[in-house]
Batch of 2 targets.
Target 1
Amino acid sequence: MPEVASAAVAAAVADAHRREWAFVLAATVSIAGDLDSAEEAVQDAYASALATWGARGIPDNTGAWLTTVARRRALDVRRRTVTAQRAIPKLVHLAEATAFDRVDEDVPDDRLRLIFTCCHPSLNLDAQVALTLRMLCGLSTADVARAFLVPEPTMAARITRAKKKINDAHIPYRIPTTAELPERVDAVLAVVHLVFTTGHTAPSGANLMRRDLAERGHELAWMLRLLLPANRDVAALLALILLTDARRDARQDGSGRLVLLADQDRSRWDHRAISEGVAMLREALSRRAPSRFALMAAIAAVHDEACSWDDTDWPEIVGLYDLLLETWPSPVVALNRAIAVGFAVGPAEGLAELDRLADEPQLSRYGYLAAARADFLTRLGHTPEAKLAYEEALILTENETERSFLIAKLAGIAGADQK
Amino acid sequence: MSKYLILIFRDEDQPTGEVISPKYREFMDRRASALLGGVALQPTATATSVRGDGVGGFVVTDGPFAESKEALGGYYLIEAADLDEALEIAKEVPAPHGGVEVRPVRVAS
């Protein structure tokens, strides 16, 4: 084999890390018996790829190479320690592990087992999200901590606690039964949706989006689609992500300022992603009552398919929000419905709907309610009240890009007021 | 197989019958092979707590260790393949005025 330049090796290993991590790790857990030892074996395998691919050449199937090395390493470690620790229960029994003694034979795709273990409902949502990013996306603890703006030791402790619970409570490493599946898939989808939305509009910080997180959410949704191809709820979430993410390039102007849907340059939308999302949505909606994510995707699709803001089918959007409120009653959904009413009927009606939500405790710290009121008040010419509402929205908004947008709006109406 | 303790919590303001309800009997018959033991407890009004005072003595007080609206009313010790199976069994425990907590039993190493 020819020698390969170290830069090319590093690139190949990085690529394999991004694309193969979950597969390699999932296939190694069934040998290693627990997540910690599996992770160590997989990290060793990547290190040994970095050390040896230069001299031996980059293998054709990097994933298979890494899986074989990681599984051999895990089996060695397991055999060495099993006699010493016979009493310690393991996620997967050694009998099952040794059944794969010929580790380079057919390797099962165990990613679903890994996903369902990481998103087990007996773990809290924060832990599920952290484990999913760590185990399925291969993010380091430092990266996961940064993504959720918590100190690294806090995140490390969260992950350690979750792994300990998996081991001590014997959370199984298996795909749920058909009866359990819908509920368990819902839990997984909630995690993937949270990863995506946290990246799509960062709750705080200098940037509007955290592209890395949004992309991970996107990749996880595709992974689920591959592993559960017939599942309509998975199709619905993937449709929602495709149809939402299709607008990403138009959400900010050249200098990073926020551009609202109404003012976005629709030629900058990803029209291939839109048709892909619409096709996926059609599948999600066939022969059944629409799920929460399917309705959210349908709303995104109405926006994506409108040639302009004025062409938007607002009554259709209000109708979809009505359905969504039935399946998923939440004050945030009610807020979005109220905004849609404002465009379907008129700003006064929208404002009335918004004011009906004023006492919702869940919305009392939610900047979007004040921002929406401010917008309708401006349209109605109630400038002093609009000013107050923009000021309230500013107090409640922590994302810097959104803050700049609100400050510009406030300056705009203050200027108009003085004329 | 692993052992779990299913702790049954109930609102003590709700009345309780003198005899084991048919629902519990049904549950115990159905899950006989998984049940290693279990008891129903007298209400917390009958509880006495004993704590070390840190200098070799004890403080004995009236009442349960932790006050809460829902008090420990009984338990089952069960054996299950994993947490999912334990949770399946836990869902079958009749606990009309409360719920249950599933705790893995610590294995001595």
Target 2
Amino acid sequence: MSATTTRSRTDPDTAPSADNTAAAEARPSLLRTLVSSPTVRKLAVLAVIAAVLIPLAHAKWAGAGWPHALTVDVSGPLEKSSDWILDNRDSHWIFLYFFGHISQAIITGVRVVYIALLALGWAGVTAGLTLLAWRVAGVRVAVTTLVSLAVCGVLGMWVPTMQTLALMAVAVTASVVIGGLLGLAGGLSELAFRVLRPVLDTMQVLPAFAYLLPVVMIFGNGVPGAVLATVIYAAPPMARLTALGLRGADAGVLEAVASLGATWRQRLLSARFPLARKELLLGINQTIMMALSMAVIASVIGGGGLGDRVYQALSSVDVGKALAAGLPIVLLAVVMDRTIGVAGERLGAPPAEGGSRLLRGWPAWAGVAVITAVITVAGRLSGSQTWPGGLTVAIEGPVNQFKEWIVDHIYTGVPVVGGTAEWAANYLKWVLDPLREGLQGIPWYGILLIVAALAWLIGTWATALTATAAMAAIGVLGVWEPSMDTLSQVLAAVVVTLVLGFAIGIWAARSARLERMLRPVLDVCQTMPQFVYLIPVVALFDVGRAPAAAAAIVYALPAVIRITAQGIRNVDPSALESARSLGATQGQQLRQVQLPLARPALLLAVNQGVVLVLAVVVIGGLVGSGALGYDVLFGLAQGDLATGLVAGVAIVCLGLMLDRVTQPTARRDRKGA
Amino acid sequence: MATTLAPETPDSPKTGDRTPVFSVRDMWKVFGPKADRVPGSPDAELSAADLRARTGCTAAVRDVSFDVEPGEVFVVMGLSGSGKSTLVRCLTRLIEPTSGTLKIDGEDVMAMDKARLRDLRRHRAAMVFQHFGLLPHRSVLDNIAYGLEIQGMGKAERRAKAAEMVEKVGLTGLERRRPGQLSGGQQQRVGLARALAVDPEVLLFDEPFSALDPLIRRDMQEEVIRLHHEERRTMVFITHDLSEALRLGDRIMLMRDGGIVQIGTPEEIVGSPADEYVRDFVRDVPREQVLTVRRAMRPAKSDEEDGGPALTPGTTVADAIEAVARSGGPARVVDGGRCLGVVDHACLLSVVAGLDGKEAAAA
Amino acid sequence: MATAHNPRRRQLLMAATGVTALLTATGCGAADMSKQSSPYANVGGAKSVTLSVQSWVGAQANVAVAQYLLEHELGYHVDTVQVDEIPAWDALSQGRVDAILEDWGHPEQEQRYVKDKKTIASGGGLGVTGHIGWWVPKYFADKHPDVLNWKNLNKYAKTFKTAESGGKGQLLDGSPSYVTNDKALVKNLDLNYQIVFAGSESAQITQLKQFAKQKKPFLSYWYEPQWLFNQVPMEEVKLPKYTDKCASKGEKDPDSIDCAYPTTPLQKYLNADFAKEGGKAAAFLKKFHWTKKDQNQVSELIASDGMSAQDAAAKWVKAHPDVWKPWLR
């Protein structure tokens, strides 16, 4: 207040007289303004609560870290239930008559698809999928498909690729059906939507890793558990987008359809679904991408296929082998993404004019089927079902040599900037360690208070309550310390990600050339499964928290860059034009117009950055990031439910808390850009 | 208030004792909590603002009664928020009326079950919407055939029928396009064709042309006039545009705040506004284009009954002015060989100047 | 309208019939998960065997040779799945894996599955003896021989310090799935060390190689047989002697262990049904028995020469028919 008035008094030239009077008028009411400002009011309420509760808490449970008296030891009951499950899995009715059938259905499904793929042989599968891509998405995508499949074969990954395809086919179908049905309920019933939405929102921010343990507990290692974990992970985006699409349907069209006397079912099938087709397709696309990424992670619980090859390679530090197995995954992702993307674009457009009639409609589909059949038979006659061994190339050797060369040259002793080993050491010494000590040193109620304040400022009291409760749950479960460790890793990596992401994003928004160059890179990065990032970083950054951070940053960066660039580019051009007409410099335009107007996008970028970083930091347990991620791995590896499940729940709570404190009040409508 | 102006049995120029297509009596549509309690209660008499304050309800249609006669173009006109769009949706129960009676061809619409109501929407009343309401993923032809598809008609048959409609509304050559590739005017032609395809007894138009450019709007109005001339199909036409109402309407119902202000022919509305609100509304209307010599004429003096040009009673004042100016003397108004009266410079001028209405209002 | 609805009703009826038929066919009866095999098994007519391959290279060598012989000599198709040690027992019990070729001793699991539930059968010894311990690089031990006694470890804590270990010395541990008492040992022996878990063996190996390249000192949990010794020569640090008393104490309370790791004869285990009905494959796997030297040869071909597991197995098989011929008899 005094600052304003002083300025207007001492500096009348720069402050127009209107400001002067405004300031003068504002003076008596400033206190009221302060009180009525929601931010200040919320902080005041919190301060009061803190003033009452903190002395109490402090008197009773002083010191940093969560007080031991407030923890609940759940390891006993968890161990008991884990034992019970192991002892009763082949006798109790719930396993025999419920889970057993689910498991059997999944096995049957995967097996049927797998047998079908093997029966088609490499020739049949390649021809069939290529023609399918051509029918749905045109020549360019068909060529991509052909090349991708050929690469899968050439890399010697044909059989694992087919296994992954079989697993994906079942998992994606189940996810789309289940997600679609949930979405249908949410799209047609307001009540269902209100119940579903927060659940789906939350499920989408949870790291894939957290889903593994409960599934393993019931289904054991193997394909059924892997498929189920994948479905749990991949169905929410489908449900969410279906619901949003159905709800977002043009009311005018629906009314017109009703006015023509359509029944409820006609309305749903001929109008609501087609009107939501963009969202449905986007949902399917996201489901596929998430399923693919999960199918890889699920190799930890015996999912088999390409993921298992990556996992095996990861255990023997074989970057070449990991690449050979990772590349097909990336290619599968790119092919499916493109196919659906182009199919989506074509949905709105009319059928292409001209061209032979044979290239349209059912004759074309029949043609696809016939050609595929012919090639399949030809393949069978020539006697090779799986990819011919002579047509493979081993890339492991050269890749590993290249990796060695890179590591040799940038690991250490690079002039001026220092090698990656020095970076890692410095990052640990100057960033992570102080941050971890700080977080573990702050009294527990301090952390709760900070979380509550952040969440309340950005959202509602309900947001704050959720976030604080999630944090408190971590303490109660007795994993406060490792959680603070994980939190410190997440925060540090997020800061780096955001600094880099914003910088590159702003730059890309202003330079069309850079944007063009970045686009394919970002596309590939965003479709790459999280696992693949872990492989090269170990060699460069030593074992520990640094490689996990590096992998997390690389993984989260594309989304942040993309959202930032889009947000800035989508700023209302007229606002920018008016700023330019007033003679604003480039910097002024950016600071005063673009960044403030792009604020929602930037907040979304922060939120996404946090969620993605957490996902990888947790997987970082595989490369020595320790803390919660290691505990989950330990639980999985040792069959130790007490450790693993508690850590899993703690990760869920951390994810929930982080999402809530970075979640702008207006909820985002889709994940990623 | 305004309802008192609604005649109990509105008379139409062209009707004998045929059953009205729509017969609406005491219809209310109230939005808000416990809406069904408002009609008939003391609250019903409150003004819109007071009603809202007292009950939290909004009366979009209040106590409306009117008949739509077979073959006429019945225009409902009012500013936005006057309840006209709600009213037209109530006619096929796209919006459920709160109270009142509603008959189509003498059959009680309010008593219809779901199937019967669907049948009504499928075969008897088709609607054209302001924002077209086309299905973006279907071609023009399939959009037009959509109503027939809903009825369960086979593919070949409905396509053939739709192709006829394409020609009728002048969209030949665009059958395979998607709505997104058409101009606004073309899209509305598709909407019109879709409604026509089911061969409904009555067409309902909800501000169909307000989203179009003025020139295209004019074309479309001509199209509607032409269609009406060809088929004599009953139409209920909602608009907020007075000139459109005057051009198209056989009769116009003027609404304000959910109630009826006046029902009458364009000439009655312009010539004898029921109150200040209507008078204000029609102030800028070129009266000579709307009013006819029937209104402008004075009794003929004995020497005038044989001389001068002859005009029918339906001739607009504008045309009469031309005739009078050419002849230099008064013109006779002749109906079936009988001279009803004459118009001269003075009476035509007084119509243009709006002096004639004064007496009507005073009376 | 009625005509429009009728075919639809018929379709519905047909669908319902279909679903019912399907349910009857699959059997609404019990579906025992512990009897369900991998969907990838026995596809295309080929008899197939699923082997669990653990993450360390020694185990990969076992599996590679077994796979090679099963495929080339006995005509089986072999699937390998990487499963951690303890979940592998569960998978073995459920029949999703047919055999584990190298187990480092899991008494609790043995009790549960072999003795109580009888879903897993012992497949005999592998012939290789495993030993876990703490190791330092030879280049360091040569300069500071006294580091090889655990009592002197605290003296070297500063030397073994890294960024990850804070102020203490770093004891590098590996995969979370490995058998380890290190936490208890550090505590009970009062060592000023921080255990840093590499999270996976690969990460640990990478780290060890990197240390060796820089000639940096390190202290690591490690085990033999292990091919890495050929690349990074290491010497074992002597921990307090392993005794039965210490072992029985540790069985009651794992946190109380304060002595070295035992020497373990590595074991093979088969799924009980597979052991009975697995025919030649099961018989072969039961007879599979080789030495530490054999295993190391294959391991090294895989791990340091960068050969694919199958090529390495082929090379070894070619050179040592005298070893494997008896397994097939």
